[in-house]
Amino acid sequence: MMKGFIFDLDGVIVDTARYHYLAWKKTGEELGFELSIEQNEKLKGVSRVDSLNKILGWAGVEISEEKFNRLMDEKNEDYLNYVEQMTPADILPGVKDFILELKAKGLPIALGSASKNAPRILEKIGMLEYFDAIADGNSVKKAKPDPEVFLVAAKSIVTAPEACVVFEDAEAGVEAANNAGMISIGIGSPDNLSHADHVFSDFTLITTDFILNLQPKH
Ligand code: B16
Ligand code: MG
Questions:
Q1: N or C: which end of the chain has fewer CB within 10 A?
Q2: pTM, whole model, 2 decimals?
Q3: Which domains does the chain have, with CATH numbers?
Q4: Beta carbons of 188 and 167 less than 8 angstroms apart
Q5: Active site residue 8
């Protein structure tokens, strides 16, 4: 039986990708570059530093370290202004009930997110207290697809990686879960998440019985 459950944040619990997009688009404009929705897709699950490096690469622009840091700070300020407007209505379909069902069975829940703003977002949507542990951009050095964030999460809930299930919407996140030896459940379209062990379009289609009865990979 699976014993530990790790949730990515953006794209799994809430859709903050549109806020990241609006904020990065403004950064792009300062660089004389228009960020497309397709390019924004490639920033999902990617850390803040790596996201700006990708944007600079697409824009074909080189900047000083000082400007780099200023653009990152400004982007985060804009992003946090959107986050401040978030409410429990922003929770994605089915995920809250799914987590509550696992909690009712006494099973541990952890967050495994690249975001440094994860606790604030969980607070705004009223879900912070549901998590037994939070592994996020503040607690790890290596970005997904490195398994570090999920291994830290599993350790925090004292559960062996093989007994953990990860819910992820990004390709790099699915790879990170696979690299950690965990079961990967993709949330979204099978077209982008072909390496996930199972893919569902949202949590209204997933039962806790199905998840609990999955077999460890090794
Ligand atoms: P921040 P996740 C990721 O969240 C986002 O998908 C990604 O677009 C963002 O750049 C990253 O968090 C860092 O976020 O700027 O708030 O630290 O999907 O890993 O929950
Ligand atoms: Mg995500």
A1: C
A2: 0.95
A3: 4-14+90-212 (3.40.50.1000), 17-83 (1.10.150.240)
A4: no
A5: yes
